[in-house]
């Protein structure tokens, strides 16, 4: 019997190696010392930063503070209502939170925050693929807002963001390599990766794998290269937009 593969999703307005349009607003939450609303294609993330004057238990007595992240998806972020994620041990949520925490910690000099904990909360308002990579981008934007405010208030004398860190998804749709997959593409990809990297092309973390049979080493390298290149392009756009936004 002949097996019929699903048709390849059609991209509108961009080629295979072009990320989706990105826009960001910072300072959107009046109660948080740092916040950002980021849109990547049709995926929307609200990220907020909270500074708590209490060290994480494993950081007591250390010379630097700690940064941790939490991730959640609103019930109508998707086509069908999803139950609220009240179980903190939800496997997917826990995995994404750990990715966000590692990515954002790697961007920060936490020595100015000794005996303090930075919380970055990323909430998915609308999901259309790439929610974890969009959360890394939104988290970075919210941290930029947070640090800018502290510097302007005289609470920090040096800029604590050491690396501009972003992320992007990349996958194989049939034989075609595409970056920044939306939901339709992600659901049909035979292999996909989430690449976390700096705006200078340094790799922080790669997460993903093959869905429909193994990939060759050459294909993996091509995915990784395309991913780091796309992160640099996205971060150049994000950094430009953040610089254009007047500090509060």
From TrEMBL:
<dbReference type="InterPro" id="IPR020568">
    <property type="entry name" value="Ribosomal_Su5_D2-typ_SF"/>
</dbReference>
<dbReference type="InterPro" id="IPR018336">
    <property type="entry name" value="RNase_PH_CS"/>
</dbReference>
<dbReference type="InterPro" id="IPR002381">
    <property type="entry name" value="RNase_PH_bac-type"/>
</dbReference>
<feature type="domain" description="Exoribonuclease phosphorolytic">
    <location>
        <begin position="164"/>
        <end position="229"/>
    </location>
</feature>
<dbReference type="Pfam" id="PF01138">
    <property type="entry name" value="RNase_PH"/>
</dbReference>
<comment type="function">
    <text>Phosphorolytic 3'-5' exoribonuclease that plays an important role in tRNA 3'-end maturation. Removes nucleotide residues following the 3'-CCA terminus of tRNAs; can also add nucleotides to the ends of RNA molecules by using nucleoside diphosphates as substrates, but this may not be physiologically important. Probably plays a role in initiation of 16S rRNA degradation (leading to ribosome degradation) during starvation.</text>
</comment>
<feature type="binding site">
    <location>
        <begin position="130"/>
        <end position="132"/>
    </location>
    <ligand>
        <name>phosphate</name>
    </ligand>
</feature>
<feature type="region of interest" description="Disordered">
    <location>
        <begin position="1"/>
        <end position="34"/>
    </location>
</feature>
<dbReference type="InterPro" id="IPR015847">
    <property type="entry name" value="ExoRNase_PH_dom2"/>
</dbReference>
<dbReference type="InterPro" id="IPR036345">
    <property type="entry name" value="ExoRNase_PH_dom2_sf"/>
</dbReference>
<dbReference type="Pfam" id="PF03725">
    <property type="entry name" value="RNase_PH_C"/>
</dbReference>
<comment type="similarity">
    <text>Belongs to the RNase PH family.</text>
</comment>
<keyword id="KW-0808">Transferase</keyword>
<dbReference type="InterPro" id="IPR050080">
    <property type="entry name" value="RNase_PH"/>
</dbReference>
<keyword id="KW-0819">tRNA processing</keyword>
<dbReference type="InterPro" id="IPR027408">
    <property type="entry name" value="PNPase/RNase_PH_dom_sf"/>
</dbReference>
<keyword id="KW-0820">tRNA-binding</keyword>
<dbReference type="GO" id="GO:0009022">
    <property type="term" value="F:tRNA nucleotidyltransferase activity"/>
</dbReference>
<feature type="domain" description="Exoribonuclease phosphorolytic">
    <location>
        <begin position="20"/>
        <end position="146"/>
    </location>
</feature>
<keyword id="KW-0694">RNA-binding</keyword>
<keyword id="KW-0548">Nucleotidyltransferase</keyword>
<comment type="subunit">
    <text>Homohexameric ring arranged as a trimer of dimers.</text>
</comment>
<dbReference type="InterPro" id="IPR001247">
    <property type="entry name" value="ExoRNase_PH_dom1"/>
</dbReference>
<feature type="binding site">
    <location>
        <position position="92"/>
    </location>
    <ligand>
        <name>phosphate</name>
    </ligand>
</feature>
<keyword id="KW-0698">rRNA processing</keyword>
<protein>
    <recommendedName>
        <fullName>Ribonuclease PH</fullName>
        <ecNumber>2.7.7.56</ecNumber>
    </recommendedName>
</protein>
């Amino acid at each position: 019997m002949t097996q019929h593969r699903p048709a390849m999703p059609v991209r509108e307005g961009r080629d295979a190696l072009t990320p989706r349009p990105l826009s960001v607003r910072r300072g959107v939450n009046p109660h948080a010392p740092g916040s950002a609303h980021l849109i990547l294609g049709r995926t929307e993330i609200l990220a907020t930063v909270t500074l708590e004057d209490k060290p994480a238990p494993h950081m007591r007595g250390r010379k630097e503070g700690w940064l941790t992240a939490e991730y959640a998806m609103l019930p109508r972020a998707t086509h069908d209502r999803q139950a609220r994620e009240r179980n903190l041990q939800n496997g997917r949520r826990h995995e994404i939170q750990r990715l966000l925490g590692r990515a954002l910690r790697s961007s920060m000099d936490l020595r100015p925050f000794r005996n303090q904990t930075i919380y970055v909360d990323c909430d998915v308002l609308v999901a259309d693929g790439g929610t974890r990579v969009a959360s890394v981008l939104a988290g970075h934007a919210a941290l930029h807002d947070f640090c800018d405010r502290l510097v302007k208030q005289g609470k920090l004398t040096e800029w604590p963001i050491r690396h501009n860190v972003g992320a992007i998804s990349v996958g194989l749709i049939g034989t075609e390599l595409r970056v920044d997959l939306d939901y339709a593409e992600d659901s049909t990809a035979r292999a996909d990766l989430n690449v976390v990297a700096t705006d200078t092309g340094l790799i922080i973390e790669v997460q993903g794998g093959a869905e429909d049979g193994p990939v060759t080493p050459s294909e993996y390298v091509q995915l990784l290269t395309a991913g780091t290149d796309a992160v640099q392009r996205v971060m150049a756009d994000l950094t430009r937009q953040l610089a254009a936004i007047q500090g509060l």
